[in-house]
Specification:
Helix content is 34%, strand content 20%. Strands 15-12-14-13-17-18-16 form a 7-stranded antiparallel beta sheet, sandwiched between helices. Strands 7-8-11-9-10 form a 5-stranded antiparallel beta sheet. A 4-stranded mixed beta sheet has the order 3-4-6-5. Helix 2 packs antiparallel against helix 4 and helix 10 packs antiparallel against helix 12.
Amino acid sequence: MRLLQALSKFAASKSLIRNVRAAFSQTPLTSDTYKVERGNYGEIASEDISIFSDIVGCSHVVADPSDLEGNNIDWLKTVRGQSKLMVKPKSTKEVSEILKHCNERNLAVCPQGGNTGLVGGSVPVFDEVILSTQRMNKIISIDPISGVLVCQAGCILETANKELAGHGLIAPLDLGAKGSCHLGGNISTNAGGLRLLRYGSLRGTVLGVEAVLSDGKVLDCLSTLRKDNTGYDLKQLMIGSEGTLGVVTALSILCPQKPASVNVAFLGVESFEKVLKIQQCARKDLGEILSAVEFMDSECMRNVTHHLNMTNPIADCPFYILIETSGSNASHDEEKLGRFLEEVMDAGIADDGTLATDYTKMEAIWGLRERMAEAMLHDGYNFKYDFSLPTDKMYDLVRASREHLKGICKSVVGYGHLGDGNLHLNITCEKYSRDIHSAVEPFVYEWTSRHKGSVSAEHGLGFKKRQYMAYTKSKEEIMMMKKIKQLFDPKGILNPYKMLPDNF
């Protein structure tokens, strides 16, 4: 009945906006960067909804505007789409049939997983059909001998980790959004996370990918082999392509053994230069058991303690560094960590610190870092950036931004993955304004480009960053990417207005 009611509403309102900007929750962004015209795509008709209902069942076709509200807006609540329809398939076959029909009708499609992205890549811009992987959440197999997990794209990271734990394994990535992000979305955005230092990027740990192309053909690269040197590695094109080349439906991923011993040290220091010195000591003294090195500045700590009522376990310091070790021998790991802590404290590199060896305390310390993005949302309108920089230059961007934006913004803070040079730069102000936006961008991108950094370390480009790709990639690289897009998706129906710039 609800679907029939929604269909009647849909039929009564078929005038689609042809030339608009993306809508933002606090105020519409007016920068030219975000202006985009609707592509020459087909418009959804009641016949399309009937066909989708035949494919997935009426209860898995959502057309009621109130039910679509959460799927039309991103996690940051800064980008809002205008989709009138969401389809929730259960299998690769159903995804194939949906995309085949959309391709024939020239209907644009927005693949969506857990919708935890930060660059507007997982929400529609106009009236794209949302293709949700919520129901594709099956774990297909876990091989405890090879350590390989095979699952559908909609499998939630935390759910997979719980299943893996029963086999003495863990997923090779860990994110603050682990309770809601989908592994297919992680693959599509090449998510980095908190332990890339130890386990590497998804490009190295993903063994196979199954994806459905825009015309409905299934690209079956779902290998579980660690070594396969036969021809082009097509799965790599799907990793990090943000749903623009195909919809990932299943994956196989190499999972390491769950460590028998985990320890967390949390240190306070007086300068970023000493943060770098501690990282250098950690690499030297901790070696193979080092699994994460994270940092945050005092403004980050102020936000997370003030807005989320969390507790700083040590004295107030200008900078904080979180170091995690994981290994197979508790006494060996504790000995190495103890020697490291003694060295940095005796040398006066660290001013204060605490050591966590029990789960509760470790979770509390990790919570300070993992909930940082959430805390920043409480501090005002948030400009959020994710840069990769030479490690010694990471905090220079924070300092340069503070100087450049002095008297304009409320706060400029920096935190992130020190172990792999990934800075999360956050700039807050009381409310959005065009003048502030113009002062922030393209300044932060130009600075990053001058210092040989990347404008996106792990969040992707999505909708918000696509026009800034040229600050990191050459014209030739961008043109080659566009040729690949044309080859895989000739009609351009897959996640349009995302990732690739349209000024080339």
